[in-house]
Specification:
Elements lengths: L1 E6 L8 H11 L3 E4 L29 H10 L5 E7 L6 H14 L4 E5 L5 H7 L7 H17 L5 E2 L4 E2 L14 E3 L3 H11 L2 E2 L9 H14 L8 E5 L6 H10 L3 E5 L11 H9 L6
Parallel strand pairs: 1-2, 1-10, 2-3, 3-4, 4-7, 7-8, 8-9, 9-10
Antiparallel strand pairs: 5-6
Helix pairs in contact: 1-2, 1-9, 2-3, 3-5, 6-7
């Protein structure tokens, strides 16, 4: 099992280049940054975890620019978005950004994506229907894949429609599209079209049972478990035994990081990396 590291990517967190170099030297497989271009001051959407919205949400930097800084400082570390809000950016410029990052990093990009939870944020930047966002994301991913793979890409869907275009340069290889989703609808979409599944452990009452259910869904779509990686975002208190348990459940990658209660404590990041680097060989 691989070990990745997730960060809120605020200006108060460790510099992306320094963090990436430290992670690579420590044996971590990947670095993951999330995305919120803005947070509406007036919103009715409740924060999913309950309570007040944590302050770091309001201060997140751009994931792609930060990952480019990380790429320039490393040679092997994989670079992930965890998660990117693909529907909240213009399709072509976003695809160009991802393709450029992949080329300049030597093909190390992983795209974790999701439908988001903040309706007002979504509606500030998108004319698509919030209630249909799972279908919109499915088309967004399909259209992006076409841009990355086809010589003269075109796409004709319910929400996205364009005639043949030149889209060059392509990424070195089409980055895996990993769906950060929980719940029956999200899991079903993941099983149908995603290259990977990225749930959060605290949202799964029984991780082992959830993975079994996901594998059953894959079979419904004629897919095999080894075709769809499972990346588990660990929001529980991280211990070596917990990581080994997730490995034994069939998780391909665990993304650890500073838990929600410590998002405003960047000083604990480096000691955490040093601590868990010692068990990577056992995973």
């Amino acid at each position: 099992m691989h070990l990745g590291f997730s960060s809120m990517n605020t200006a108060n967190d460790p510099d992306p280049a320094h963090l990436a170099k430290t992670l690579e030297a420590a044996g971590f497989e990947s670095l993951w940054y999330g995305e919120h271009s803005h947070i509406p001051r007036c919103r009715s959407t409740a924060y999913p975890a309950g309570g007040e919205l944590p302050e770091p949400y309001k201060e997140m930097m751009d994931p792609y620019i930060s990952l480019m800084a990380a790429a320039a400082a490393t040679t092997r570390l994989k670079l992930g978005t965890g998660i990117a809000l693909l529907m909240e950016r213009e399709l072509f410029s976003q695809a160009k950004t991802i393709a450029t990052l992949d080329r300049l990093s030597g093909g190390r990009v992983l795209i974790g994506s999701g439908v988001g939870w903040n309706q007002e944020e979504f509606e500030n930047v998108s004319q698509q229907p919030w209630q249909r966002r799972y279908g919109v994301l499915k088309e967004t991913v399909a259209a992006t894949r076409a841009l990355f793979a086809d010589e003269a890409p075109e796409f004709h869907g319910e929400f996205i429609d364009f005639n043949p275009v030149w889209f060059e340069p392509k990424p070195l290889r089409s980055p895996p599209m990993i769906f950060g989703a929980m719940g029956p609808l999200g899991m079903r979409h993941t099983a149908e079209w995603a290259d990977g599944w990225m749930p959060v452990d605290v949202a799964l009452p029984d991780v082992k049972a959830a993975i079994k259910a996901f594998h059953d869904l894959l079979a419904e779509f004629g897919r095999k478990p080894n075709e769809v990686e499972i990346t588990l975002v660990v929001m529980s208190e991280v211990t070596p035994d917990l990581l080994k348990y997730y490995r034994d459940c069939g998780v391909d990658r665990c993304n650890i990081g500073v838990g929600m209660q410590n998002w405003d404590k960047p000083e604990i990041v480096m000691p955490m990396i040093e601590r868990f680097s010692k068990i990577i060989a056992q995973l």
